[in-house]
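[stage:ingest] chain + small molecule (S-adenosylmethionine)
[stage:ingest] validated
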Amino acid sequence: MSQSRSPTDVAAGVREAFIVQAHACERLGSPFTAALCRVLAAGLDPANALERRVLEWPGDPSPFADSVPLRLVGALHGLVRAGRAPQLAALYPPQPLAEPQRLLAGVRSTLREHPDFIRAFLDHPPQTNEVGRSAVLIAGWLEIAARTGYPLSLFELGASAGLNLIADRYAYRFGDVPWPQTQGRAAAAAGAALTLACDWSGPLPPLDAPLQIRARRGCDRHPLDVTDPAQRERLAAYVWADQRSRLERLDAAMNVMQSAPIRIETCEAQHWLPSVLPPTSEPYVARVVCHSIFWSYLEPQAQTQIATHLATVGATASTERPLAWLRLDLAGRDEPAALRLTLWPGGTEEVLARAHPHGAWVRWRGE
Ligand SMILES: C[S@@+](CC[C@H](N)C(=O)[O-])C[C@H]1O[C@@H](n2cnc3c(N)ncnc32)[C@H](O)[C@@H]1O
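[stage:predict] done
[stage:export] tokens:
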């Protein structure tokens, strides 16, 4: 992208990426992160080698491609969380929003003191794992359990740290209604370290369905292992500093995962799925391929490979050997996410719900 453009245009494109990110943060209720992006947009200084590297970004810096703003914002938050940037920490939430000049001074000194730490963040795309999506996904799992009557064998694509692959280990409030509901599950929920609450409209999913997880596997091209303190910190750093409740639920979910970890396999999903999901399968188990906010990250060819494999395996499915494809994806910019289910035999696609992309609310059956 930058090859035919002048250095001035490239730098302007980088600054513009920070402004676009600031607008997104404002829309999503993160005024501090928006202010930080604006300060960076105006204040990145080509005289400093690290900042020059950002301003000379060779690819597409925008939030829809390389996400350079969130790489830098994640690095700064990581330093603040680690207690390594006290001057900047004094300007971070929960402190009141500082004047841009003070924020710029704090950012500047931090950029100059920790170039190696920041470079390590610039080298990688931001990595998140939004646990709030579990409230939407588990409703889909319950629906599949109710319809098939079988235990589920889960395969998650783009699982990140796998925190949504253990959705059944958390407790929920769907509107006013708690889950788990049965006696055994209620006992388990009493010990659940995390309760996810979401505003629910429309009918409830089948909360009394006998949800048993027979097996769970997940893959990601860059999985994170939250039993490693450095990777755990990295995941938290990418949550915006003014999103306290997201940080709290992430922390609680990571604790749940640490108590009985699941290893997420390092693989491209389009290669992994055929290797773990053959046409033949154990009877009386529902295989569920699931993913959230993942599909749009795939190349069209990878999408076709996955969809074709699912259709092939689905064609061999039977009532005793059902196959489900459950996915939560953004319908479009500024539109709610959609939870879709395709269940074989049959293979008809249906929209189970519209939802907030972080699971804050769900409209089940679109109501
Ligand atoms: C936006 S994150 C969503 C993570 C998680 N599903 C969630 O909802 O929190 C997208 C994830 O997909 C992974 N990813 C992107 N393309 C992939 C591919 N071809 N194969 C495997 N993982 C991929 C990324 O590494 C990242 O962890």
